[in-house]
Structures are given as C-alpha cells and as structure tokens.
Amino acid sequence: MEEKSLFDRLSKRLETLEKLPKLDENKSIPKVLEEKGVSRRDFMKWATAITAMLALPGNFSPLVAKAAELSDRLPIIWLHMAECTGCSESLLRTDAPTIDSLIFDYISLEYHETLMASAGWQAEHNLEHAIERHKGNYILMVEGGIPSGQNDFYLTVGGKGHTGEHTAQIACESAKAIFAIGTCSSFGGVQAAIPNPTGAVALSKITNKPVINVPGCPPSEKNIVGTLLHFILYGTLPALDAYNRPKWAYGLRIHDLCERRGHFDAGEFVEEFGDEGAKKGYCLYKVGCKGPYTFNNCGKNRFNQHTSWPIQAGHGCIGCSEPDFWDTMGPFEEPVADRLYNTVFGGLGADATADKIGVGLLAVTGIGIAAHAAISKFKHPKDEE
C-alpha cells in the first residue's frame, strides 16, 4: 500500500508539471533525444538505471522517464562563483553525449554564463530578468565557493560592481530549490583551503534557505541530473546526510563498493605505484586512497562515458566529496593512518577516532574504516563553527 501511495503521489506531481507551459515551444527533451539518435529502448534503460540509483522500485521507471521528459518545464538559473567551471564542463565536454548530458543541455537554463551568448550588461540584464520572471519557481544551481564578508570584493560580478556573495544571496531569496553543485559550492573547495585568503565559504553559509549539496571535483553527471529529477518527481528535498548530501548518492563510502575491497580484506596492498601489487590490482590504501573516509558513488557511475574512475585507473580516491578535503585528506599519495587532524573528538588520528567511539578497527591493517562514518553521524556541518 505504501508503494502504491507513493506511485500515485508522484504521478499526480508529474501531471501537474505536464500542465505547465513549455518554456521553449521549439524544443522538447523527447524530440532532442530522438534527433541525437537515442532510441526509446535506450532511454528507458537509462531511466531504469536512474530509478535504481534513486532507490525507487523498478516499476517506477516510467515515472522517472516522464520526469526527465518534463525537465524542460522548470526554469533553472546556474551561477558561477569562484571555481574552474569543471562541474559544467564534466557535463558538456564529451565526444559521445550521454543521455544525462543531453538532458542537461536542453533543460530550461534561463541563465548559465558558460553556455549563453550574451555578456556584460546584457548578461546582467538576463539574470535580473530571469529572477524576476520566475520568482519563487526556479531552481538555482550554484557552482563555486563564495568569497564572503570583508573579503567579498575578491569576486565582483558585472559592471555594477556587485559581489558574488550579493548576487548569490539575491538569487537564493527567490529560488524554489537550491543546489550547490561541486565541492567548491558545497564546502568551499580549494578556495577555502588554508589560509583561505579570499574568505571563501560554502553556499549554505551565505543563505538561510536549505541547500542540497552535490559535491565532487567534479561530481558525476548522474548525481547532478539525478538530484534534479528527484526534485521534479517529489517537489521536496531528498533525504540528506549530516552534510546535506542526498543519501541516495552519498549514503555509502567509496570503500563499501570498491572493486579492490577484496584485496583490502585480504591484506593485499600496493606498497608503491608500479609495483607488483599495482599490476595485480591490489588495494591502494597504503599509497593514499581515501576511499574508507569518503562518501560517494563514483565506483557505480564512473566517468568519461562511464568508462573508468580513478581507483580503476590505478590512483586512490582523494576524498574530493568531503568537507575541507584539501586540508584533511592530503598528502594525497600517503595513507591517513595515524596522521593528526581535527575532529569532533579533538586532535586525534583517524584510527584513534574509530577506536575511541567503538565503530570498528581492523586488527590486521590498523585502519579505522568507519571513522568518517562516525564523524558524519555525530557531527553536523554547522557545529564546525
């Protein structure tokens, strides 16, 4: 009964969206996919995969497919703050566009500095017009950290001299939903690394409205599009972890689903890059893999048309979807082991933290694989202040 009730609720939600006028009568997602050679069969296979990723029953696939087809009915404003544009580029720069990237290309992007032709005063006018026209109804996606406070002048936008912080705050005020895309927007990123001369902070620090974080450097295209589709389906925020990340995408550690996990359990490690263990695909923990401390689904989604991902290619995870990873996860080619770092329990090493709170310690390797799980469970991001 609960499943049927959810199915009916999501169906009614999509029926409501379907009645909304198209923001561009000259294009539609189904038409674009057909023109790009994506068959209905391939599209439904993709929808089935997204359904599973969102932890929905298999019979919800038609609803997910319909949500994707209706994704051009909701206006989206995408802001660039202090960043490298890598999050946008991860969706756009592909020799064989995936369904995810095609949907991203043709959703109703009312403002996106990388994609739109306008610049200067015209771009400013477009942003102001989009915010006013779709007030209270648009989805705001923000890429990049926010130089803030007395250092906000490090990022000024347009001829009026508005700071990035001011622009983001204005856009947040009238947004229906707010997504922080990438680690910079979610947690400050490299801009916020010590000594943080620009005073860069996460998007959530400059607004009182709820922000869904979709971290990664860059995040998977499926996590970006999946988060959008979840909102289209439900019209509400998804279940979030302690760092406001969707649990369906960031609920498990890299370590939990890693293809090298069996070697970890057997105590078979790469001791240095290029050694015999590396050739045999042994665990990369001893050469710096942060998989036991990192929550993401990279191993399932992969990158470059889902061809590979860092651990498959032979380099350990660097923890890029975690808060302050530039400071807490480095050096990237060395294990965390007993290196000191600040936690809610004080200046303890990762293993000592895991041991102290009793969430498990592997005697063979001395690696507290549950340390970050415990920290995420007991500490909320705002507690860091």
UniProtKB/TrEMBL annotation:
GO biological process terms on file: anaerobic respiration
GO cellular component: [Ni-Fe] hydrogenase complex; cell envelope; ferredoxin hydrogenase complex; membrane
Keyword line: 3Fe-4S, 4Fe-4S, Iron, Iron-sulfur, Metal-binding, Molybdenum, Oxidoreductase, Signal
Residues that coordinate or bind [4Fe-4S] cluster 1: C84, C87, C184, C217
The NADH:ubiquinone oxidoreductase-like 20kDa subunit domain, residue ranges: 84-230
Cytochrome-c3 hydrogenase C-terminal domain ranges (all copies): 250-332
Pfam family of the protein (one): TAT_signal
Binding-site residues for [3Fe-4S] cluster, renumbered to this chain: C298, C317, C320
InterPro entries, sorted: Cytochrome-c3_hydrogenase_C, NADH_UbQ_OxRdtase-like_20kDa, NiFe-Hase_small_C_sf, NiFe_Hase_small_N_sf, NiFe_hydrogenase_ssu, TAT_signal, TAT_signal_bac_arc
Entry similarity comment: Belongs to the [NiFe]/[NiFeSe] hydrogenase small subunit family.
Listed PANTHER family: HYDROGENASE-2 SMALL CHAIN (PTHR30013:SF7), NIFE / NIFESE HYDROGENASE SMALL SUBUNIT FAMILY MEMBER (PTHR30013)
Quaternary structure and partners: Heterodimer of a large and a small subunit.
Stated name of the protein: Ni/Fe hydrogenase
Source organism of this protein record: Halarcobacter ebronensis
